[in-house]
Automatic annotation (TrEMBL):
Compartment annotation: Cell membrane
Residue ranges of every copy of the RCK C-terminal domain listed in the record: 403-485
Topology in membrane: Multi-pass membrane protein
Claim: Transmembrane is one of the keywords in the record: yes
NCBIfam families: PRK05326.1-2, PRK05326.1-3
Protein name stated in the entry: Potassium/proton antiporter
């Protein structure tokens, strides 16, 4: 490749990226998951579209797909609120293991006995289509204000169910399941998930200590450090311990996201942009790998049958069996069942049989591709309506505030950056009514691009940006107080971040 060819590639890539960024707004207006638009862009650029780009290297697609999933899981872990995930982590783990096993069994049985597919192909289709997709869940559900416990369970499941399904698809594709048996597979899944999660926790704990103690020369270096440490968790777990790198990177990111690190909001913004880039590249690449010209009507019908089997039968049974012991109400079980979105993960998993040259692997990929397109188009736009009908919306979601931390190392203090959203009950509250801990002060208010120093009688307004200086030991207490008032108003007691509610 010479410089002229590189310039052409950069021009084409920048145009595609810009169109993809603009398409996010279009997908939001239409109520469609953005992955559908990106897959469509890949199809248009592919050999069957006007772009005429020929791409059929399944091994490269497999490798790049895994790399993109690492970034997506990193962003998901960093932006997931630990207080929401921690109580439902056992439920998420059961959904990611027992639930996946039930779904695979149901789909494989239907594919074999009703569609007449060979057992290896049937099990592969069941394993490929059973996991939920982290990118789809993180991007779609965070626009639907459902209850924190419900959102936490879905996000935990999508972050953890990649590990067992990747292992199952790999073993079935290579024929190792017939050689070692299911007992070996169950033990291997247990080892990879448990040790991978423990490894991720240790790396996350070490990373938090390092970032807090080492003063970096620039604020822009903190996001790079966080992403590097998350990737080390994935690669280190995979290479050194042969455990699930996906479980490791997700747990590491959860630990990093829970900690009050310096320049936390800047880090989240950086990783959010990186995750968008990974999603765009991943979906466009998978669209390039697909070929609509080879998809027959029979493949579409098979995709419909498999989609109904996995979405309606397998998923519902898996959720009922997994969630009932945790006393999850039927309304939440129904929503969890329908919100098990499939996206990039099933298509990426379908590249494993392609790379291993399994018989009918191309047909499996085409069926899965059609299934993801059809059922994402059906499920994604219907989630807000279903959440309202089932009564699982979070009434306090409009009152959230985002709080960032800027370190003041020499004073052993932190500066909290607080934005007052339009629905927050901080609006109308006087500074003196905040009753912040002694030693904490609101040092500056920025209102309509004008900054001023407030007094005790200054009334906060929607859209205000506050700079609050707090001694480090009082930082968390101050953040809890501000969140409580944002949710419950000036009369809020000390009931934690959820105001008058603490569940």
């Amino acid at each position: 490749m010479n410089v002229a060819e590189l310039d052409q590639i950069l021009l084409a890539g920048a145009v595609v990226l810009l169109v993809a960024v603009v398409a996010v707004r279009l997908s939001g207006r239409l109520g469609l998951p953005s992955l559908l638009i990106y897959l469509g862009m890949g199809l248009l650029l592919g050999e069957s579209g006007p772009g005429h780009i020929h791409f059929e290297d399944a091994q490269i697609a497999h490798a790049l797909g895994f790399a993109a999933l690492v970034i997506i899981l990193t962003e998901g872990g960093l932006t997931t609120r630990w207080n929401e995930v921690r109580p439902v982590m056992p439920l998420g783990l059961v959904l990611a293991t027992v639930g996946v096993a039930i779904s695979v069994g149901v789909v494989a049985s239907i594919a074999h006995y009703i569609l007449g597919l060979d057992w290896q192909i049937a099990v592969l289709i069941g394993a490929v289509t059973s996991p939920t997709d982290a990118a789809a869940v993180f991007s779609v559900l965070r626009r639907v204000p459902i209850r924190p416990r419900l959102r936490g369970a879905l996000e935990a499941e999508s972050g953890l169910n990649d590990a067992p399904t990747v292992l199952l698809v790999t073993l079935v594709s290579t024929g190792a399941t017939s050689e070692h048996g299911w007992l070996y597979f169950t033990g291997l899944v247990f080892y990879e998930l448990v040790v991978g999660a423990l490894f991720g926790f240790v790396i996350g704990w070490i990373s938090v200590g390092l970032i807090r103690r080492v003063a970096l020369g620039s604020a822009g270096l903190y996001p790079l450090a966080v992403v590097s440490l998350a990737i080390i968790s994935y690669a280190g777990g995979t290479v050194l311990l042969h455990v699930s790198g996906f479980a490791a990177v997700y747990v590491t990111s959860l630990v990093l996201g829970k900690a009050e690190l310096p320049h936390r909001m800047a880090t989240r913004s950086f990783v959010d942009g990186l995750a968008w880039l990974a999603q765009i590249g991943l979906f466009v690449m998978l669209g390039l790998l697909a070929s609509p010209g080879r998809i027959s009507l029979n493949d579409v019908l098979v995709a419909l049958v498999i989609g109904i089997a996995v979405t309606v039968i397998g998923r519902l049974l898996a959720v009922v069996v997994s969630a009932t012991p945790f006393k999850v109400p039927w309304q939440e079980q129904a929503f969890i069942s329908w919100a098990g979105l499939r996206g990039a993960v099933p298509i990426v998993l379908a590249t494993i049989p392609l790379a291993e040259q399994v018989p009918q692997a191309t047909r499996i990929f085409d069926i899965v591709f059609v299934l993801v397109l059809l059922f994402t188009l059906l499920q994604g736009p219907s989630l807000p309506w279903l959440a309202r009908k089932l009564g699982v919306l979070d009434e306090n979601a409009a009152f959230e505030v985002e709080i960032d931390v800027a370190p003041l190392e020499s004073l052993n203090a932190d500066m909290l950056q607080v934005h007052v959203p339009s629905e927050s009950r901080l609006a109308g509250v006087e500074i003196g009514e905040l009753r912040l801990p002694a030693g904490v002060s609101v040092s500056l208010i920025i209102r309509r691009d004008e900054a001023f120093v407030p007094d005790r009688r200054t009334v906060l307004r929607a859209g205000d940006a506050l700079l609050v200086v707090a001694p480090s030991p009082l930082r968390d207490q101050t953040a809890r107080r501000l969140r409580a008032i944002s949710r419950a108003g000036r009369l809020a007691g000390w009931f934690g971040e959820r105001g008058r509610e603490n569940h």
